[in-house]
Amino acid sequence: MNQIHFHLIGICGTAMASLAGMLKSQGHIVTGSDKNVYPPMSLELERLGIDVQLGFKPENLQPAPHVVVVGNAQSRGNPEVEYMLNAKLNYVSMAEVLKEHFIKGKHSIVVAGTHGKTSTTSLLAWTLETAGLNPSFLIGGVAENFGSSFRVTDSNYFIIEGDEYDTAYFDKGPKFMHYMPDTAIVNNVEYDHTDIYPSLDAIKLAFRRFINLIPSNGTLVAGFDSENVREMAPAAFCPIESFGTDAEARWQAHDVHYSADGTTFTAVHDGEVFGDFCTPLAGRFNVRNCLAVLAVANSLGVRADAIAEGLKTYKSVKRRMEVRGVVKGITVIDDFAHHPTAVRETLEGIRQKYSGKRIIAVYEPRSWASRNKAFQHDFESAFDAAEYVVIAPIFEAYRIDEAIRLDTGELVAAIAKRGRPAVEIDGADNIVSHLIPMLRTDDVVTIMSNGGFGGIHEKLLSALRQ
C-alpha cells in the first residue's frame, strides 16, 4: 500500500481522532489541527504519535498533504478550509475516507437508529470477537472490553456506528449513506437533530434511503418496537430479521428478569426457543440491543453458546450508565442521554438495576435537540423513574432562538406537578453544593449530559469523600 499523507481538520473530535488512529495503523502519515486540544483524545493522539497543531492556520497545510479530511464541525471561514479551497487541494469527508480505505471489500455491518447505536455497536463488536470473527470496528465511544473506540484487523467484517447526522459542510447528507451496509441494524427512529432535520418526515426519509442501500443478499435487522421502523422495513429489498416485544417481531425476549447483577432472558426466534442469555446490562432498551446483536450474529452463523459468552462478558461503553464511583454508599453514574426517550429509558434501567434505592436525576440540556421546545412536553414524563430531579440551565442558550428554546422553568414546574420534587440550579459547583447535604447511603445520582457538564462527576465524588 502506498503511504499517503492525510491531514485532518478538526482532529480532536471522537470520530476524527479514531479515524486518525485507523489511518496510522495502516502505515499512513497523519497530521491534524483543532482549535481545542484537550484530553482524552489529545492524549490518545499523542500516544499514537500523531502530530497535532493547536489552532487552524494555512501553514498547517504546507507542504500540501495528499488528502485533507474535513471534519463535519468545520465550515467556510476556517483558515485551513479557505486555504485548501484556494490551493485546490484534494479534500474529502471522514465518511468518504472510511468507505474507500476501510469498508470497501469488507462485509459492512452498520448500526443505525436514533437511540442505542453506540451501545449496540460495541456489544456486537465484542460478541463477534468472542466468537472468533476478529472484526474491525469504529464506535462513537470507548468500548471498555477493548479499551478503544476503533480497531483495524484483516478480518472480513467491519462494524461501524451509522450516524444520521450530516457528513461535512460540502455534503449535507447523512454519514451512514457512505457505509455500504451488507447487514444493517435500525434500532428505532424518532425525531432528533432539530438543527438539520426540519421534521420527523425528513428523518424518516433519510432512514428509508439508508435501508434502500442494503443489497438483496444482505440483511435488515429492524426494531419493531419502533412504529416508524416497522412502517419503513417492508421497503427493504433484502430479508428482514425483526426484533422487539411487538407480537410480529421474529426475535423476542421472554421471561425477562432484572436484578442488581444484570438481566436474564430467553430469546425466541420465529416462535422457537433460541437460548437463555444473561447480560450485566440493565433496562428494556438493552434487552432490545441484545436481541439485535443476536439477530446479526445468528445471520453470520455464530452459535448460540458463543453469542451467550459475548453478552455475558460484555462490560459497556464509557458514559453509558457508567458508574464513576461509589462513596459512602452513594453511587454516581454518568450517562450520555440527552433526547427525552434516552433520558426515560436510562432512568427506567437504573430503577430496575437499583431497585428500592432513591434515584436523583441531574440533567443538562446541551444537544441541539434537547435545547429545542419541540421536546418540551416529552421531557415532562421522562424523569418519572427518579425521586428527585435537578435541571441545569440550557447550555449556551444564546445560540438558540428564544422562540424555539426549551423553557426549563416550565419543565421544572411540570415535573413537580407529576409528584417529583424538581429544581433548576445553574452550574456544576452549585449543583454539588445543593446535593451534598441531602444525599444519604444507597442513593443513586444519575448525571445526564452529552458534554463535560463542568466536570460535575468528579466534583461530586470529591465532595462526598470530604
Give an account of the 3D structure.
The chain has a seven-stranded mixed sheet with strand order 8-7-9-6-12-13-14, sandwiched between helices. The protein has a six-stranded mixed sheet with strand order 18-19-23-20-21-22, sandwiched between helices. A five-stranded parallel sheet has the order 3-2-1-4-5, with helices on both faces. It is globular, with a radius of gyration of 22 Å. The longest helix has 16 residues, at 284-299. The protein starts with a strand and ends with a helix. Helix 10 (340-353) runs parallel beside helix 11 (376-382). Helix content is 31%, strand content 26%. With 466 residues, the protein is of the alpha/beta class. Helix 2 (41-47) links the parallel strand 2 (29-34) and strand 3. The chain has helices spanning 14-25, 41-47, 79-86, 94-103, 117-130, 200-211, 227-232, 284-299, 304-313, 340-353, 376-382, 408-417, 428-435, 456-465; strands at 5-9, 29-34, 51-54, 67-70, 91-93, 107-112, 136-143, 148-151, 157-161, 166-168, 171-174, 183-186, 219-223, 240-243, 251-259, 262-269, 272-279, 322-327, 330-335, 359-363, 388-391, 422-424, 444-448. It has three domains: 5-94, NAD(P)-binding Rossmann-like Domain (Rossmann fold, 3-Layer(aba) Sandwich); 105-313, UDP-N-acetylmuramoyl-L-alanine:D-glutamate ligase (3-Layer(aba) Sandwich), CATH 3.40.1190; 322-465, Protein-Tyrosine Phosphatase, Chain A (Alpha-Beta Complex), CATH 3.90.190. The mean pLDDT is 93. It has 14 helices and 23 strands.
